[in-house]
Amino acid sequence: MTQVRTRPTTRRRSLATVSLAVVLGASALSACASGGSGSGGATAEALSLEGSWTLVSGSGPDGEITPVDGAPITLMVDGEGAVSGKDGCNNIVSTVTVDGDTVTFAPIASTMMACEQPIMDVATAYGSALGAVTTGDLDGEQLVLTGPDIELTYDQA
Q1: Considering Cα of 116, then 118, then 121, then 126, what sign does the dihedral take?
Q2: Which InterPro entries match (predicted)?
């Protein structure tokens, strides 16, 4: 007499179903953890300020920050967070820390050159604004740094 074993086959199917459910569940969790794709949300890339930037427009608590012709305002950030550049008149140095979209500049140091008053006014306003930046965003080829009453927009140099 031949005995039919239905239980092990059912058990194998159940094990295969559970395994498939675990794999699909893990894939879904992985997609959620990485931001996923599709209509549910965009994948957020880490903000990087690394590169050379030229200020094209800005505003701070004291008003507009408009670079004077012939006195560009530049910002250079290396891969370690070291910052250098020009405020239109003086060379500047600092460091920057980026955490998500939060941007924090260490106190800005600069040379003490004297320039024509309009350039000095812009340099002073820019230094104050840059030191008060709290967030950043990359908008295509532009870097936008913001803070309370501050918006600094740079083109990639």
Answers
A1: negative
A2: DUF306_Meta_HslJ, HslJ-like_sf, Hsp_HslJ-like
Residue 29: per-residue pLDDT: 32
Could you say which of 3.10.520.10, 1.10.8.60, 2.40.128.270, 2.60.130.10 is the CATH number of the domain covering 51-156? 2.40.128.270
Structure tokens belonging to residue 67: 């670079």
E strands, the chain, where? Answer: 51-60, 63-64, 73-77, 82-87, 91-99, 102-105, 109-110, 135-139, 142-147, 150-156
- pLDDT mean across residues, the chain: 80
Using CA atoms, how far apart are residues 145 and 157, in angstroms rounded to an integer?
16
Give me the amino acid identity at 42: A
